[in-house]
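Supplementary Note 2. Why include the ligand at all?

Several targets in our set were suspected to adopt different conformations when bound, so apo predictions alone were not considered sufficient. For every target with a known small-molecule partner we therefore ran a joint prediction. The input for adenosine-5'-triphosphate is given below.
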Amino acid sequence: MKEQTMNPTANKDTVLNVSGISKRFGGLQALTDVGITIQRGQVYGLIGPNGAGKTTFFNVITGLYTPDSGTFELAGMPYQPTAVHEVAKAGIARTFQNIRLFAEMTALENVMVGRHVRTHSGLLGAIFRTPGFKAEEAAIAGRAQELLDYVGIGKYADFKARTLSYGDQRRLEIARALATDPQLIALDEPAAGMNATEKVQLRELIDQIRKDNRTILLIEHDVKLVMGLCDRVTVLDYGKQIAEGTPADVQKNEKVIEAYLGTGGH
Ligand SMILES: Nc1ncnc2c1ncn2[C@@H]1O[C@H](COP(=O)(O)OP(=O)(O)OP(=O)(O)O)[C@@H](O)[C@H]1O
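The joint prediction is reproduced in token form.
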């Protein structure tokens, strides 16, 4: 079967194991039988020409779109990508191609929001500001500051998100994603709109996150960045998976060369 030859076998180190994902929009088959397996500590790239289905795939695994078919497993547990917050709870955190921060909140508050996915004090605790709630908030703020330091924007903790540079806003989104303690961090075109220096810094940050034994799924248009960073890559074209493997293998693949060059990158 196709998935068995394209994907390495899932085992105890597998973080994400999805297969048979299909998604149709009206008359358009956006994804056909797509599956990937990501091992713990890997940076896994998803590439393909415009309209290949990358964002649709991301939206399906993170609960924004309901797939027509597919099986989903995160760290060995089946999960149903039926709602974004359920997927976040299950352990996938994501960033967006178009940055989605709370513009009027501070950088610190934005990260604290991410952390609340994992907190215990309920709404009543928040309203009555119980001692348990206050202690938890202090711990969350402390952890949020650590994460801002980690992504390199600790000094901007009290700045409103909208006042940060584009590159720093992307870092802030990553800090917020990390705050959920995810099994998998899904980054949707993190280098989009970045200048060369910001891209180098982003690459260092992603490398650091990997070294800290996190697992990353990356959609990226910058093929050079993908090839330099990723352990494995899947290439989509017209919603189909045309190649899977190491960057070196994928770069040599005839179908990939054809998809990018042969048809003018459609
Ligand atoms: N919500 C939607 N409704 C209808 N069609 C959609 C929707 N989302 C995506 N599509 C279509 O599905 C196909 C795949 O789009 P998708 O955005 O997933 O590709 P992509 O690989 O992420 O492209 P890009 O690199 O341009 O972002 C495209 O033909 C697109 O027009």
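The CA atoms of residues 16 and 38 lie 5 Å apart. The pocket of adenosine-5'-triphosphate is lined by residues 25, 28, 30, 48, 50-56 (CB under 6 Å). Comparable summaries for the other entries are listed in the accompanying table.
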